Amino acid sequence: MNSKIWLSSPHMGGQEQKFVQQAFNTNWIAPLGPNVSGFESDLESYLDQNKHIACLSSGTAAIHLALVQLGVTSGDEVICQTFTFCGSANPIIYQGAKPIFVDSELDTWNMCPNHLEAAIKDRISKGNKPKAIIIVHLYGMPAKLDELLSVAKKYEISVIEDAAEALGSTYKERKCGTFGTYSILSFNGNKIITTSGGGALVCNSDEEKQKTIFYATQARDSASHYQHSEIGYNYRMSNVSAGIGRGQMQVLDKHIDLRRKMNLFYKESFKNIKGISVFGEYSNNIVSNHWLSCIIVSKDARFTKEQFQRAMEKENIETRPLWKPMHLQPVFKHMPYYGSKNSETLFKTGLCLPSGSNLSIEDKERIFNTISQLL
Ligand SMILES: *Cc1c(COP(=O)(O)O)cnc(C)c1O
């Protein structure tokens, strides 16, 4: 059997172990230390917008602490892109609030500004103005930020920008992860860079960053004994994980370049093939990191999405359907939803293909040959 070709697997640059070794040498084996602050400042310079970043145990934790700091509590409503991974939406429930799901448009597959405005108007007419809007850049593709942020501004609602999949993507030459009232990043094992598990909350002031760290370390009051006036969480990133992150930062841009080349490889491979389209940027204003490359298999293709998946599986090549929209998830099926059928159609017809920065020439040949045999 051929070795497995994964959708997206960790890709170390080489210096990660050096930083981890330093953590061991100095006995900083704790959820604080020089690697944590080093990784934070690496990220702050990379995003380049005077941001203040707190590293956390996951991207989901970062969304949770954004909601906490925006004062979202029980009875509140929070608008969330329906076409996403559950990590975007679950923290709304942690806060006892109610998610209101909004459909995507087909240019970027992200939140549709028109459906967003319709949702806000309807919720206001029902007497409950949404407390926050969670916008996602799915698969690394920047959302229509100008339009979305102008709707948010018009109704004075805070934005949480979920850039978990979009580190290094840009919108009008500015990095994704710098547009929200709060923005979040993820360093889970399958993301564009990894700390084996981790995330970050991007804040607009040092005060917000310190408050984030306060909530992430059990909300301890400043007293020598352990005193608590608020409920906190154990969400800080470990100094060992942050060491991996520091090493990964050295290869981030190189790895983005390789992911973008994977996208070109698919555009080339599926060129002139009826019924298959490779998802790409619809405008020159945006650059996707192409975290995952995706295709849509339409009705006029010579094979179905399922046939394609089975053929790849036989060759031990991983593929995966696009994210199942949140409003179709059993756990969220009673939550309000605003939209047409865009995300549902994408879910039915789309597939993610192997996209890692570590795929070899042989891997690509195997993928290409499998595609060719199907035709
Ligand atoms: C991965 C991901 C998250 C959550 O990140 P974790 O670090 O896995 O908790 C949130 N939103 C999106 C869109 C993601 O892909």
TrEMBL record:
An annotated GO BP: polysaccharide biosynthetic process
Entry keywords, A to Z: Pyridoxal phosphate
Record-level Gene Ontology MF annotations: pyridoxal phosphate binding; transaminase activity
One protein family per Pfam: DegT_DnrJ_EryC1
Superkingdom to which the source organism belongs: Bacteria
Active site: K191 (proton acceptor)
PTM sites of type N6-(pyridoxal phosphate)lysine: K191
Gene3D superfamilies with a match to the protein in the record: Aspartate Aminotransferase, domain 1, Type I PLP-dependent aspartate aminotransferase-like (Major domain)
Family classification: Belongs to the DegT/DnrJ/EryC1 family.
Protein's UniProt name: dTDP-4-amino-4,6-dideoxygalactose transaminase
Organism the protein comes from: Winogradskyella jejuensis
